[in-house]
Design a protein that fits this description.
Helix content: 40-55%
Strand content: under 5%
Radius of gyration: 38 Å
Number of helices: 47
Low-confidence stretches: 1-139, 606-698, 939-944, 1147-1158
Oligomer: single chain
CATH topology of one domain: Transcription Elongation Factor S-II, Chain A
Length: about 1150
């Protein structure tokens, strides 16, 4: 910034001074502005950011600078610039926004000296209306400007030599010089100023970052003060105040944040400091002289930055400091508390609350038991009051996590937490109320039954008020409690207390709420209560009826008494009421609760169970389903069935998971409307039959081929839900893998046939000894579950349709001809059999050959046959030979499935309410993208075939896949592996047959640069833990290809991951030729492999490498690791490779690893 100078003598930079003088015209402008200040609206608060003074302690964080007023871009001080005001022109009315605009336009030559606007004679005499003088507030958000730094004006820095250009003995001094150079701050508000200096500083920052990451022993005692000083100079600053402090709160979902203009330098400074703190050479004892409480306070001030990128780095930085410096932990917690207190009780504005809560969540997770009193006080005086702030949505997930962490540590805090939440429960803020309901459900998930009894009455009183809310999201979220199995169990144990509290709300809601989904959820809750304790349910209904009768009698008596008072007043006035008195309209008493309504409610709940999802049609313009308000005189049963009349719904609407097994099924395709007597007969019939509900039978799936028109409408467990989907997913993923490997349809059919036999068997009707019903039921459920998983994006839908169509085609050719014909007769296809005359006219018969059957369809229905010239076209119709009938049917199947997937995608947002299902669907789609095709289960080797530490080098050379071979090579080269690399490689070796004793020997020899004490303290425990000998003693499995691809992405310096995905193209080719060049892999094979990698089929590329490198053992292209399967697990690759070697040597190789289905 201009007008501010700072000497930096130690770098030998060239300083140029800029003489500034104030002209008379500027003085006149300032005086004119001061004279008009009284008439103008008050200006916004100036940005008076000042450099922090340097403390007189060894741990200072800023260079010595004198206190200056922050200059503006035109050289005047911020205080004088902010005091300028617009000149109010006579006879015109200026809005506050226009005045503010003029106040800030002085930098561009406008502002207070702008001449007054011309005023017409017609409007000169008009006075401003009152509404024109009302200031516009609350419109724009309270946004910040980018920070202004105390910079060095006109400072030119010279490029210093690189580290590799000077001797090693001079590098420490050069490192310090580069740190001094990086302490120069530039003005990024002017994008065109000092470009050379900015570029040199950027390059220098990258150099020192790379230097500290790649070199060891570079962090000496002299480095600590220079690093801290450089960090503080670049980052510690005053956060600018809001441009419009009276505006609305900043909403990160609606408003764009103000990004720091200096971020290109700030980002590298943050990265450098993190690498500095995480370095193995970092000494906490030396650093704590410079990283002290003052440093932490300055760091916490930066959390108010509006730039989310900076807050993310700050979160990581503070977390690392908390973990490294034990002496700063208590001060950090106290300082964060002060930030929260200031936010809750004073400003209610802070941008970094979510990040601070994330840090606290990790801290709380590490609290020792029993909890200290200061920790409990923090929960009740800080975390609970944070719920009352109106900007709760900006940090609520992190806050709820912290609260639940406390309850998992100490269950006795549940009563205080629940009562605290009820204390701050919002009154009229519906979105905030939904957040409270979600958090309360998380609290109840971890509450003990004994603690639940203490808070059940006030809790369910509040829940009843939420159920009665006319805001459908509040009522819906409250009713979702009845879908939580643990909460339902808590209710069932205390039903005598809870049911009388919530029954009136449920009953009134079902009669008067406008949303159909709410009605269905209410019926679900009522039916659950009735099934848990029918006698208590009937008793509560009768009590409710008697209470309503008493309320009506009281209202009638009150009405009669006031009538008597009115008549008495009339008599006192001699039959006349005072003049001007108007008789109010008589208010009739409330209608009584008839026995018929109570009876109908009981019959409805016994007769049917309503799907919690409302129909898709009958939506208003906003997409919300609406029904008229209930007529008090309308019959309950008639209104109920008019609201829930059965209709055609989308293919995923009625998939129920985890519902109570006693709930009946509603046939959504029935179009018959039941009346009251039909309902009673149906309920009586069901009671006589013992409530048996029809389940899937062979009649539901008469054919092996299926267009999947009807969704499953029954109750299934979560395990069955996931198993059916995973088994079908393996088949579909193998189909896609076959396409990537360019297999012919005959080869694909052979591979898919064997895969289906293992995971998705589907026999024909002639196989009477087979469990046809269970096979087809599994096929049916699995298809619809995968619809939910793959309807989320266009890419997933396209790949799913292609794989499903191929599976249908394979089943077509393996089906019986009679069953195919019977299946086609049930479908109403829009194509007919061509007459013999039409066929003879189009296709003259050749010598002696009979004319076959042809089907007549629109040519757009068979584009693939038209492209291959296998049909005859005439008048827009295609005549398809019977031999190509499969193309017509598969095209129909594909079009049908595409439409259904689009409908499912539209309905999916309303199906994501079950937190148990959403993670399963996410993992299914990720597994498909990662290429999961077959299940591989590995067991450790038998004692007679176990491997030792001395064998690993030879095994890695002969049998390891690229991921493990790369880890082994890095381990031998660096004598070390980072955490995720050790975890991935260690579990692989464990499953391969390396015992814990041999594992300790192997890792100790591999880490030859590390002393025994350090190895025993830092690595021995983790190795034993991975074998299930420490901690919770879990037997960890080796990571599959899907887990390697989808989790723990490698960063700089990491060696884990999948080379086919995480290596660059050049590095991958070089690595593969180095690893497998001696096994037959040549540069001529790389084009095929790299094209497969480019298409994203990483497992196919790995499989192709396996085939090439094992061609000497007789493996042919397309065989994969056996049976045409692709590689899906590193241990699968190694096990099959060792098996082939043993077969070549004439040995049995079935003893070490078990492959399912091989």
């Amino acid at each position: 910034m201009k007008g501010f100078k700072m000497k930096v003598s130690q770098l030998g930079r060239k300083n140029s001074t800029d003489s500034t003088s104030s002209s008379k015209s500027k003085e006149s402008k300032a005086s004119a502005a001061a004279a008009a200040a009284a008439a103008a609206p008050p200006p916004p608060p100036p940005n008076t950011a000042k450099p922090l003074p340097q403390p007189a302690v060894p741990g200072s964080h800023l260079p010595n600078t004198s206190s200056h007023t922050l200059p503006t871009t035109n050289g005047s001080s911020a205080s004088s610039a902010s005091s300028r005001a617009s000149v109010a022109s006579s006879g015109t009315d200026r809005s506050p926004d226009a005045s503010a605009e003029d106040r800030h336009s002085g930098e561009n030559g406008g502002g207070p000296l702008t001449p007054p606007r011309a005023v017409s004679l017609a409007t000169r005499g008009l006075r401003p209306a009152p509404k024109d003088t009302i200031p516009i507030t609350g419109k724009p958000p309270r946004k910040q400007r980018s920070s202004r730094f105390v910079v060095n004006e006109k400072v030119e820095i010279e490029r210093l030599p690189a580290f590799n250009e000077i001797p090693a003995s001079e590098r420490p001094q050069l490192f310090i010089k580069k740190l001094h150079q990086c302490a120069v701050v530039f003005d990024f508000n002017d994008a065109n100023s000092e470009l050379k200096g900015k570029q040199i500083k950027t390059q220098t920052l990258h150099e020192i970052l790379d230097y500290i990451m790649t070199q060891r022993g570079v962090i000496t005692e002299d480095i600590y003060p220079e690093v801290v000083k450089m960090f503080a100079t670049n980052l510690f600053r005053s956060i600018p105040p809001p441009v419009n402090p009276t505006g609305d709160a900043f909403d990160p979902e609606e408003d764009e944040p103000v990004l720091e203009l200096a971020w290109p330098h700030l980002k590298i400074v943050y990265e450098f400091f993190l690498r500095f703190v995480e370095s193995p050479d970092f000494s906490t004892n030396l650093a704590k002289r410079y990283i002290d409480q003052n440093f932490v306070l300055n760091l916490l001030e930066l959390f108010d930055s509006e730039d989310p990128r900076e807050r993310d780095f700050l979160k990581t930085t503070l977390h690392r400091i908390y973990g490294k410096f034990l002496n700063l932990r208590a001060p950090i917690r106290r300082s964060i508390n002060n930030v929260f207190f200031h936010f809750i009780y004073e400003t209610e504005r802070h941008n970094g609350i979510a990040e601070l809560l994330e840090i606290l969540g990790s801290i709380i997770n590490g609290f020792a038991l029993p909890l200290k009193e200061e920790h409990k006080t923090f929960l009740m005086r800080v975390l609970i009051p944070l719920h009352k702030v109106k900007s709760l949505s900006m940090y609520h997930p992190q806050l709820a996590y912290c609260v639940v962490q406390f309850l998992e540590k100490d269950a006795s805090l549940a009563e205080d937490v629940v009562l605290g939440l009820l204390k701050f429960w919002p009154k009229v803020n519906s979105p905030k109320e939904v957040m409270f309901l979600s958090e309360m459900e998380e609290v109840l998930d971890v509450i003990d039954p004994a603690e639940f009894q203490k808070i059940q009455e006030p809790l369910f009183q509040q829940l009843a008020r939420c159920i009665n809310s006319q805001h459908f999201q509040v009522a819906e979220r409250a009713l979702m409690y009845w879908n939580n199995e643990y909460i339902v169990n808590l209710m069932s144990d205390n039903l005598s207390v809870i049911l009388p509290i919530v029954f009136p709300a449920l009953y009134q809601n079902s009669r008067s709420h406008w949303n159909r989904t709410i009605h269905a959820l209410v019926y679900n809750a009522l039916k659950l209560f009735m099934e848990i304790n029918p006698d208590l349910f009937d008793e509560v209904m009768q009590q409710y009826k008697q209470r309503k009768i008493a309320e009506r009698d009281h209202a009638v008596r009150r009405y009669d008494e006031w009538q008597k008072v009115r008549e008495k007043a009339r008599q006192n006035c001699k039959g006349k009421l005072p003049e001007g008195y108007v008789d109010p309209e008589p208010t009739p008493p409330p209608p009584p609760v008839e026995d018929l309504d109570i009876m109908d409610l009981s019959i409805d709940l016994n007769a049917v169970s309503i799907d919690a999802e409302a129909p898709l049609n009958e939506l208003d313009e906003s997409g919300i389903e609406r029904v008229p308000m209930a007529d008090p005189g309308m019959d309950w049963t008639q209104r109920f069935y008019e609201t829930y009349r059965p209709i055609e719904v989308s293919t995923t609407r009625s998939l129920h998971v985890g519902r109570p097994p006693t709930m009946a099924l509603l046939d959504i395709r029935s179009t018959k409307m039941l009346n009251r007597n039909d309902m009673k007969r149906s309920a009586l019939s069901k009671e006589q039959k013992g409530g048996v509900v029809e389940t899937h039978s062979h009649s539901k799936y008469p054919f092996r081929l299926n267009f999947y028109d009807r969704p499953p409408v029954e109750d299934i467990t979560i395990e069955e839900f996931e198993t059916c989907a995973l088994d079908r997913l393996r088949v579909l993923a193998e189909i896609e893998s076959s396409y990537a490997r360019n297999r012919t349809f005959a080869e694909l059919s052979s591979v898919i046939g064997s895969i289906c036999e293992k995971y998705l068997p589907l026999n024909s009707n002639s196989a009477i000894t087979k469990p046809l019903d269970s096979e087809r039921r599994k096929d049916h459920i699995g298809h619809f579950v995968l619809r939910l998983a793959f309807c989320r994006s266009e890419e997933l839908r396209r790949r799913f349709v292609k794989a499903e169509t191929t599976l249908f085609r394979v089943r077509w050719f393996t089906d019986d001809h009679a069953e195919r014909e019977a299946f086609l007769r049930t479908r109403n296809f829009d194509w007919v059999l061509a007459t013999p005359e039409e066929v003879q006219e189009l296709i003259p018969p050749t010598s002696g050959e009979p004319v076959g059957r042809y089907y007549k369809v629109k040519w757009t229905r068979v584009p693939d046959l038209v492209e291959k010239r296998r049909v005859v076209l005439k008048a827009g119709m295609a005549y398809v030979p019977a031999a190509e009938q499969v193309s017509i049917v598969t095209q129909e199947f594909q079009s049908h499935l595409e439409k259904d997937l689009e409908m499912t995608a539209k309905a999916l947002p309303r199906l994501d309410e079950d937190t148990r299902i959403v993670p399963i669907l996410d993992n299914l789609s990720k597994g498909f993208l990662a290429g999961v095709s077959s299940e591989w289960s590995g067991a450790t080797a038998a004692s007679g075939d176990a491997i030792t530490a001395d064998m690993i080098d030879e095994l890695a050379f002969k049998h390891f896949p690229a991921c493990m071979r790369n880890l082994h090579m890095c381990l031998r080269r660096d004598k070390h592996l980072k955490h995720f690399g050790r975890l991935q490689y260690g579990l692989f070796l464990k499953v391969l047959g390396l015992s814990i004793e041999e594992a300790l020997v192997f890792w100790r020899k591999s880490f030859s640069k590390i002393q025994d004490d350090k190895f025993n303290k830092e690595y021995r425990y983790n190795i034993r833990h991975s074998y299930g000998l420490e901690g919770k003693r879990a037997n960890y499995a080796a990571k599959s290809c899907q887990q390697i691809l989808m989790s723990d992405q490698p960063g700089p310096g990491d060696s884990h991951g999948c080379p086919y995905r995480h290596f660059s193209a050049d590095n991958l080719q070089s690595a593969l030729l180095t690893m497998y060049g001696e096994h037959g892999l040549t540069s001529g094979d790389m084009q095929e492999i790299m094209s497969t990698v480019k298409a994203g089929h990483y497992h196919v590329a790995c499989t192709r490498v396996f085939e090439i490198t094992h061609a000497r053992q007789g493996v042919k292209k397309g065989e994969g690791v056996g049976g045409g399967e692709s590689v899906t697990h590193p241990n699968q690759y190694a096990a099959r490779s060792r098996e082939l070697e043993k077969k070549a040597e004439g040995k049995d190789g079935d003893g070490d690893v078990l492959m399912q289905g091989s």
